[in-house]
Design brief:
Substrate Binding Domain Of DNAk, Chain A, domain 1; Rossmann fold; six-stranded mixed β-sheet; 17 helices
Amino acid sequence: MITGPEIERVAAELSGEVAKAVHRLGARVSDGAAEVLGRPRAKAPLAAPVSGRWAGPTAVAGHPGAEAVAGLPAELAHRLLGAVETALPAFPAAESVSGLGRLVRAGAAGDGMVAVGGREGHDAFAVATQLARVRLPGAAEATAALVRALAISAPVAAVLDATIDGDAAVIAAEHGRRWFALSVAAATIVVRAGDDGGATPGGEAALVVGLGVDAAVQVLAERPMPAEWAAARAQEQRAEFLLPQMCSIMLRAENRRFGLLEVGTAAVPDVPAGGVATAVDGGLVVHVGSDDVPVTVVVETTAHGPERDLRPPDHDDWEEIVELGFSAGGLAELVGKPMTVHPPQEVGFPWPATVRARVYAGGRGSGGAERYWVRLWEAPLAPVAVLRDRPVAPSLPAVVGTALIRTDFSDDDRWAAAVARLTTPNVSGFVADVGIVDDRRFADASIADLLALATPFWCGLHACFFVADRATLASAELPVLVVGLRGDDRGRSFRVIGDELWGVENNLALSNMDFVEFAAATEDGVFRGF
């Protein structure tokens, strides 16, 4: 980085004139163009070349400001150039400018800079700046260094730090305008100090604006936003944020818990389980009833409390409901072990807030799948309130796919052979998607016994379940018992031979066909195909 007495002397001698130039140049820059520069990390989409015309900026790979400057669309680059090209300041000569010129011409060749626009028919700015890399190899670095030195001088700092009244767009525009004007002024000094008498394609203004935008992008990335920005941006975010918002995910809890925590939190805090949920810094921890079971979670962010919202589905089936509050620094995400690959889903509010959460829990500790519905809204912190605490009925085990429940434990070898056959794809590649339940708790269980454990939530996930009983394992056809769960089909049954299990499972799971269609096509109560 170029630093040292030459830069400091130029900044000290010309700071007064630069401060005046910042006012003059800034007044010519439109709000739209200035706002793009002034917003933190703001980027506009880069247009593609059309009909041979240059439609966007050229970035030199590896340059510190290249990525951000490449986000400027061509029309904004033209507007920046047009705003100042006829008003470049005429600074009086400083005694140290000749020393600055030596820095500019002696910089490391190839450090490069960024061109910020184009002209009809050819990329004049890119040509100008590419040539400048050879003629003035230290220009980009010198411009950024001079901007930094000028910014801490009293006359220029007074301009940069002046109070800005207005909303977030006004503040960002004025912030960008001031720093762009300062950067153009610095670039003007640098280009004229390093002038070797050679012609610049596109003119001096093209080179100055290219250097100026490049320096502005670099230095703005280092500088904090104005003091007025935080409150204005929060107000803007509130106006832009649409409610309600909802997301859902299926995950597996780890150590019997998952979290709704600030974005970027790596792990769920290890907090004692004292109920359904515990408030922690920045969010909450939900305590599930069993380890490594599928957990369905829905999170809804609303503008008001749940008394004015629609109730979640099957409201009366939730055994536990609790309310608690926490302080959040911004958006949150669910932290657990997702069962599917998905991008992080952000929930909550994108500003610091005190949040009230109502957590609905279903099937917690039932031994089966568990579900949770979390409603979030802004409210003052208040004590935990338990709104419902009913006993949780035991459930059939949680499975992925359709449950195949073993009830005959007389021959382990025959059972192993049956499982291998039922889970092997046929010649066409089709296979039943079954979740094996091999638990002696279900030895000799009847249909009625199993139905008693098929809770409403469990039935909401499955259209039927399969049973491998004594009759199944005693026959070479492996006639698996199929038991319906929904509506009029609940408790009805038929058998399906092992070779046709895939068709029944696939079609019932996907609701492609109804239970009754298979039951009506049986012979002696056994389905062997259509």
